[in-house]
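Record copied across here:
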Amino acid sequence: MTKRNLSLIAASLAVAMSLWFAKVLIAPPVTEAAVLQGIDPELITISAGKNLPLFETTYERHIGVLDTLKPAP
């Protein structure tokens, strides 16, 4: 390839890229968000186990480690 052919290819590539960038800047592609169905809390409540421990019990069991630390007077 000659130097002229390479410069012609580079010039055509530059023109094509600049036209594409101009199109994207003027009219960007539009997307539509999908409608989310969401979570039904009633269904989760119905399907939950019946003998779950109370939150307070679990919380106290995990936080009980810090009970040995006494606050500074």
